[in-house]
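W.,

You were right to be curious about this one. When I first looked at the sequence I had no strong expectations either way, so I just let the prediction run and decided to look at it fresh. Below is the sequence, 246 residues in total, followed by the output.
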Amino acid sequence: MHRLRTIFAVLTLLVMTVLCGLSVFVLAFFDRKARLWWPISRAWSWALLHACGLQRFEVRGAERLGSGDGAILMSNHESYMDPPALMLLSPVPIRFLTKHTLFLFPVFGWAMWAMGMVPINRGRQDKAFASIDRAARDIRAGKVVLVFPEGTRVALDQPEMLPFKKGAFVMAARAHVPIIPVGIAGSRHILPKGWNWVRNHDVAVVLGEPIDTSGFDVASKDELMALVRERIEALRAEAQTVLDRS
C-alpha cells in the first residue's frame, strides 16, 4: 500500500510541478502582488500533501501572517512536507532560504527563481552570507522569509531538535524584523528522513507570538537563538498535543 501511495505521490508531484511551475514562472513576471501565482503555489502544496498521505491538517495562529509586514518564519524541520505545509496555510507569499541545487531542476527551479526564493550554498561561506544579506533586504521590504534553523530534517527516531545554525540569527539581527516561531508535528511520519515510501498521517502547525528582535544585534545572536529555540520547542510540543487530542 505504501508503494502504491508513493507512486501516486510521485506522479502527482510531476504533473502538478509542470502545470503549476510553468504557470507560476510566467505569471510572476507581471503579477507583482501575487494575486494569481501564490494561490497556484498553494494548490500545488495541497495536491502534493494529500497525494503523500495527509489526513487531517490542524493549524493554529495562521492569522499572524496576514499583517503585510516583513517577518522571518523559523520552524523545526521534520520532513520534506514542511515547506508545502507552511505554504498551504499562509495567505501571503513565503520565500525560502533553500539549497542552491534545487534551482537546477527544470520547471521547479524556474518557478522557485520567479517566486523570489533565495538559494544558499552552505559549502561557500561568502555565497552563504550574500544569500543571508539578500534575504534580510527582502524582509525589510515587507516579505516573509522561511528558515529552518536546524539546517536539515531530523530522523524519525530523533526526539530532540538538531543544533541551530547561526546564519539565520545573523540575518534576523541585521534586519531587525519580527521572528514568528513555528512548531510542526506529524509531518515526519508522512515521509521520514531516509525513507522511500510515504505514509498516511495527520499534521499540526502552531504559529507563536512574534519575537521582537530590535533589542538584538549580531553580537547577541546566541541569546536570540536560545530564545527562539525555547519558543519553537514549546510550539512543537503544543502541535503534538493538538494531534493527540484530535
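Here's what jumped out at me. The chain has eight helices and seven strands. And, maybe more interesting for your project: Residues 2-245 form a domain with the Glycerol-3-phosphate (1)-acyltransferase fold (CATH 3.40.1130.10).

Coffee later to discuss?

I.
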